Automatic annotation (TrEMBL):
Keywords: Amino-acid transport, Cell membrane, Disulfide bond, Membrane, Metal-binding, Neurotransmitter transport, Sodium, Symport, Transmembrane, Transmembrane helix, Transport. It is found in: Cell membrane. It is a multi-pass membrane protein. It catalyses: glycine(out) + chloride(out) + 2 Na(+)(out) = glycine(in) + chloride(in) + 2 Na(+)(in). InterPro entries: Na/ntran_symport, Na/ntran_symport_glycine_GLY1, SNS_sf. Na(+) 1 binds at G42, V45, S294, N326, L391. The lineage of its organism: Eukaryota, Metazoa, Chordata, Craniata, Vertebrata. This is Transporter. It comes from Lepisosteus oculatus. Belongs to the sodium:neurotransmitter symporter (SNF) (TC 2.A.22) family. SLC6A9 subfamily.
Length: 639
């Protein structure tokens, strides 16, 4: 009895709660399906929904950006989201292990790991800055409220009340200010630039490490590690709060935002389309990359999270719910952001397009400015930045779990599975060390460089190759049968068409047009030097180059006397490909009853079908008996 209680605790059950047996006792499963949906929502709904999507709208013509965004969502985003969920759930393996489907393409899995590594490094830096603002909000007066601080310039103009340290200095400089064109800045923008970042003048001028930011980075990685100390068993409980609370704060800020003077102008800028920008391929490229960035396609996280589902879970339903929730959140956050931008523009006397920084600065400039206008502003500031922390952590959990799961699945020994916590600790420590350069005075330059190159168009390439591999190398007929065996129904016709034709074609054309109209990255008025752009391209290529390198390696190691024979053997599914559990390996995946079965050798397809013919009806019936969490139940087994 004591052993059973111990195992129950190990499987994530609360003491006194009915024991829920994991379907896959070796890898473990989610405690229930709500945990998976909330984790996936937390993974997809992240910091990008607050600062990336509104920024892309602001840069790409306001409401005009909505058109390519939703086109990409319908024809690329949701279909690929469903493909990745079904891919990982079917094999119950992470982003490396699933490529048993066609071993030559395992480089795609390594590419996903590289992308997740880059994102995980700089994403936690953004989270740590949110931590810093959170700690700095523990005061009676927010430090970015007025312009009377030592870091403020003469161009500072606050929205609560314009104040300079010395009124005499203001009068003596009035004539000079009137005779030249000066862009007035908000105290929150100057606090961000000159105090938090203490930004240097060049990407190569690292300056000093910002110790407060470094300390917050350590705190951020410690929190991520503690929440993942027991894998999905612990993170699955945390997301009940981290995935829901941000919506409460967003709603409060939305109500406050639309009551401010000038908010309607910001919302009009957000919704009014500038149709001429639709002809710019970069707008479409940004739409595509934002879909992949926001939904998490090609990061490997979706495959990883789905691999902990029970085999017969309805991941088709989950993919629709999660995708729609994510994109609705992006649009909702845009209303909150642009109402604040409209208010700031009204107070500063400038256009909406001129009021905020690019990238993460939008969340750390526009929002902090709004918070100074709320009653008891430090309280709302604490809540808001706590929300940002939760949004970031939800994504960071999955990024770290993706890398850890890939490593553990690849090694696959009982020892590594038992000591998964040490793998998690090792990856977290390495991620912290690699993030240290981003806490220097030039850190923001490197952060934006990684964001623009390491996790942008390489995602498009990886997604396209994955789609082509599954549909045309493994075969669409085989995959459709796999999905039907898992879900009890085949993929809808629309998704089959998108998987085979529409998604790969659209992605390919967008990639081509984006390369043609490529423009070097800039940050405000700073132009990145050529050597930094080379580093950016190398980061982008480092994930994609894994695909041909591993393909060449696999072909060279495959059996065969000719190149074609080696190629054929390299793309052929591994003999262990298929459902992870024996009870789910039916039909063409059913093992042979001959002695060779003990050695993992499969019988020919026609023999398997004969051997399983007598069991076919019971298995088909079992596919239709679904529990509340989408999993099937055998009447003879306990839940």
């Amino acid at each position: 009895m004591e052993d059973k209680r111990y195992l129950a605790v190990q499987n994530g059950a609360v003491p006194g709660e009915a024991v829920k047996k994991d379907e896959n006792t070796r890898r473990g499963n989610w405690g229930n399906q709500i945990e998976f949906v909330l984790t996936s929502v937390g993974y997809a709904v992240g910091l990008g929904n607050v600062w990336r999507f509104p920024y892309l709208c602001y840069r790409n013509g306001g409401g005009a950006f909505m058109f390519p965004y939703f086109i990409m969502l319908v024809f690329c985003g949701i279909p690929l989201f469903f493909m990745e969920l079904s891919f990982g759930q079917f094999a119950s393996l992470g982003c490396l292990g699933v490529w048993k489907v066609s071993p030559m393409f395992k480089g795609v899995g390594y590419g996903m790991m590289v992308v997740s590594t880059y994102i995980g490094i700089y994403y936690n830096v953004v989270i740590c800055i949110a931590f810093y603002y959170f700690f700095m909000s523990m005061t009676s007066l927010l430090p970015w409220t007025y312009c009377n601080n030592q870091w403020n310039t003469k161009d500072c103009s606050g929205v609560v009340g314009t104040s300079y340290a010395n009124a005499t200095a203001l009068m003596s400089n009035f004539t000079e200010l009137a005779n030249r064109t000066v862009k007035r800045t908000s105290p929150s923008e100057e606090y961000w630039k000159y105090y938090v970042l203490n930004i240097s003048d060049d990407i190569g001028n690292f300056g000093e490490v910002r110790l407060p930011i470094l300390g917050c980075l350590a705190v951020s990685w410690v929190v991520v590690f503690l929440c993942l100390i027991r894998g999905v068993k612990s993170s699955g409980k945390v997301v009940y709060f981290t995935a829901t609370f941000p919506y409460v704060v967003l709603t409060i800020l939305f109500i406050r935002g639309i009551t401010l003077d000038g908010a309607i102008n910001g919302i009009k800028y957000y919704l009014t389309p500038q149709w001429q920008k639709i002809l710019d391929a970069k707008v479409w490229g940004d739409a595509a990359s934002q879909i992949f960035y926001s939904l998490g396609c090609a990061w490997g996280g979706l495959i990883t999270m789905a691999s902990y589902n029970k085999f017969h879970n309805n991941c088709f339903r989950d993919s629709i719910i999660i995708s729609v929730t994510n994109c609705a959140t992006s649009v909702y956050a845009g209303f909150v952001i642009f109402s604040i931008l409209g208010f700031m523009a009204h107070n500063l006397g400038v256009n909406v397009a001129d009021v905020a920084d690019h990238g993460p600065g939008l969340a750390f400039v526009a929002y902090p400015e709004a918070l100074t206008l709320l009653p008891i502003s430090p309280l709302w500031s604490l809540l808001f930045f706590f929300m940002l922390i939760l949004l970031g952590l939800g994504t960071q959990f999955c990024l770290l779990e993706t890398l850890v799961t890939a490593i553990v699945d690849e090694i696959g020994t009982d020892w590594i599975i038992r000591n998964k916590t040490y793998v998690t600790l090792g990856v977290a420590i390495l991620g912290f060390l690699l993030g240290v350069p981003l806490t220097t005075q030039a850190g923001i330059y490197w952060l934006l460089l990684m964001d623009n190159y390491a996790a942008s168009f390489s995602l498009v390439v990886i997604s396209c190759i994955m789609c082509v591999c599954i549909m045309y190398v493994y075969g669409h007929v085989n995959y459709f049968k796999d999905v039907e065996m898992m879900l009890g129904f085949p993929p809808p016709v629309f998704f089959r068409i998108c998987w085979r034709f529409i998604s790969p074609v659209i992605i390919t054309f967008i990639l081509v047009f984006t390369v043609i109209q490529y423009k070097p990255i800039t940050y405000n008025n700073y132009i990145y030097p050529g050597w930094s752009l080379v580093i950016g391209f190398l980061m982008a290529l480092s994930s994609v180059i894994c695909i041909p390198i591993y393909a060449i390696y696999k072909i060279s190691k495959s059996e065969g006397t000719t190149f074609l024979e080696r190629l054929k053997n390299a793309v052929k599914p591994h003999h262990t490909w298929g459902p992870a559990l024996q009870e789910h390996r039916i039909g063409r995946y059913a093992p042979t009853v001959s002695p060779s079965a003990d050695r993992g050798v499969e019988a020919p397809l026609h023999e398997k079908e004969k051997e399983t013919e007598t069991e076919k009806k019971p298995e088909e019936i079992s596919l239709t008996i679904q529990g509340s969490n989408g999993s099937t139940h055998n009447p003879d087994t306990t839940a």
